[in-house]
Amino acid sequence: MRKKIVAGNWKMNKTFQDAEELLAFIAESIEKKPSCEVVACPPSIYLELATDFALDSNLFVGAQNVSQFESGAYTGEISAAMLDSVDVDYCIVGHSERRKYFHESDEVLAQKVDKLLDHNIIPIFCCGEQLEDREKESYFDVVKMQLKNGVFHLNKNEFGNLVIAYEPIWAIGTGRTATPAQAQEMHNFIRNLITKEYGKETAGNTTILYGGSCNPGNARELFSQNDVDGGLIGGASLKGEEFIKIVNSF
Ligand code: 13P
Questions:
Q1: Looking at residue 224, which CATH number applies to its domain?
Q2: Is the CB of 211 within 6 Å of ligand 1?
Q3: Going by CA atoms, what residue is nearest to atom 1 of ligand 1?
Q4: What is the C-alpha to C-alpha distance for residues 6 and 4, in angstroms, rounded to an integer?
Q5: N or C: where does the chain have the smaller number of CB atoms within 10 Å of the terminal CB?
Q6: Which ligand 1 atom minimizes the distance to the CA of 213?
Q7: Residue 216 Cα, ligand 1 centroid: separation in angstroms?
C-alpha cells in the first residue's frame, strides 16, 4: 500500500544514552498520530530498545542492514529472523554506503531482499546514481539496472511489500539536495519502470522515498511532488527537533 513515510537512518551514530533520549523525544512528539508513518533506523544494537518504544507509541522501527544468510557460522552478522524476533518492521537494503564500503553486489542485495520478505520485514531498497553518472546523463540507466538486479526478480505479490528509496549519491551528506524537479523526474521514472514490470496498480501502490540532504527547509517542497512519498533522512534525523519538523512537513 502506498504510504507517506519519513524514516531516519541514524547510520553509525549515538551512544545508548543518546539513542534512548532521541527515541523518547520522537515517540513523545508523535503521540498525536502524525500525517505520515515515522520510522527510526538506529544501529542494530539499539533495535530492541527502539521496538520497546514502538510498543507504546506510533513509532515504527527499521534496521540498517541484514545478512543474506538464514543462520549459522557468519560471525558478526544479524539475520532477518533475528530482526523479526525483536519486532523490527523495516530494513534498509542497498544503501550506497554499504555498496561502497562493504562491496555489496546487486546479487547479494537481491538475496537480502528475499530474506527480509521471508520474515515479513519490509525492505527499504535504496538506489541512486553517482555524480559522474548524472553528468554523463546515464543516471536513468544506473537506477534501472539497480532495480532490475536488486528487486525485479520478485513476483507481483512480493514486490507489493517493498519500499523504494531514491538517494542520489552526490546528495548524501553533502548539503547538495536534488531539486524537487530532479527528485520528481527520477521518482516518476522509477514508477514507470514498476508499471512496465508489474502494472499500473502495483506502481500506484508503491511508496518511493527521497534521500539526500533532506532537511526542515526543503522537505515540504520535495514531499509535495507527485511521486515523492516521503524521505529517508540521514544527518537531520540525529537531531530530534529537525527530524520532527521534517515529519510535520506533509
Ligand atoms: P543525509 O540526509 O545525511 O544526506 O543522508 C541521506 C541518507 O543517506 C539516508 O539514508
A1: 3.20.20.70
A2: yes
A3: 234
A4: 7
A5: N
A6: 4
A7: 13
Model confidence pLDDT, tens digit, residues 94-114: 999 999 999 999 999 999 999
Q: pLDDT over 70 for what percent of the chain?
A: 100
Confidence category of residue 229, pLDDT binned at 50, 70, 90:
very high
Q: Is the CB of 128 under 6 A from ligand 1?
A: no
Chain segment 66-92, per-residue pLDDT in tens: 999 999 999 999 999 999 999 999 999
Of 37, 95, 97, 242, the catalytic one is 95
Question: Distance (Å, rounded) from C-alpha 63 to C-alpha 184?
Answer: 27
Q: Which domain holds residue 215?
A: 5-247
